[in-house]
Automatic annotation (TrEMBL), chain B:
GO cellular component, one term: extracellular space
Name the UniProt record assigns to this protein: Interleukin family protein
Family according to the record: Belongs to the IL-10 family.
GO molecular-function term, one example from the UniProt record: cytokine activity
Whole sequence portion shown: 38 to 176 of 176
Disulfide bonds: 43-95, 44-97
Amino acid sequence: SGELYCSLPNPRNVHFESINMKNVLHWSAPEGTGDGVLYKVKYSVYGVGKWIRKPECRNINRTWCDLSNETFDYEEQYYASVKAFLNGMCSDWMETTRFNPLTDTKIDPPMVNVSSTEKSISILLTAPEKWKRSPEEESVSLLQVYPGLQYNISVLKKKTKKRWWFSVSNNTLVVPWLEPGTAYCVSAQIQVTTPLLHSGFSKEYCVATLKDK
Amino acid sequence: SVTEIRSGFTAIKANIQARDPIRTLSILSHPHSLHKVKLLDRCCITHQLFNFYVDKVFKHCKTEDSFVNRKISSIANSFLIVKRKLGQCQEQNKCLCGQESAEKYKQILANYEGLNVTSAAIKSLGELDILLDWVEKSG
């Protein structure tokens, strides 16, 4: 297969970067090699006996490979491996640690919608969707993947800089007894208790309560 | 306790899994995945698996790393607590064992006995997240 002499330095830091279960393999080029290095990638399901080549990531010069499709089943765990080639020389196969999509993915912040009345604001939160293979595929909310998912919400009264914190399991929250004609800013985070995962906070969404009639 | 087990395991997961070079075999997930177990059999299999870890796994997982050893013993203690609770369920006939759970457990034991004791114990310990993912999903 054209692999002559495997003394090329190895690809480094081979690891999965996963967001909402979009699972992309990343690595760094072998030390001291300039341009011209090509790579190939294979992966395996933990507990199953064979490595599977990824044709779309054969003889590529980039240092990432999207394996979301191959690691779609989050009830399985995976390994992936990369080999480098340059001028007829090659490196060893360099593997990831065992990748568990369920516990090793990062979660985006929730979408936040805020509306107001005179003395209250209503907050509607939407959890991100799990990565899907095609736009036509039915969407799966991360809420379905992580039944214990809940939201941490911060509400800031801009005028006084007073902040309240809430933790809710359902996706709506009404904050009553507020001051009319006043700006409030809302930011929210997702928290999963087991496995222990949390998103960053969303950006702030500000709304003003209606003025007194 | 399951949350404590999860956080204890997360702290040593990379270390323990790195000690298991066998990619092609699994104790819990192949050839038959835990995730295919029927609702009726879940309690019994959970109880059997907690017994399995207490009786066959933790005692064979000594490492040269004192931090890892401390985490393993705290996980083992949490397992004992959960095991006792499940034992009470079984005494009250709320955790019945049927044919499927017997078959499933037999498969897991066969996987375990297919390796030497230390390798099998370390592999089982490295698969704790497979067990926890399944237990938490089953609710």
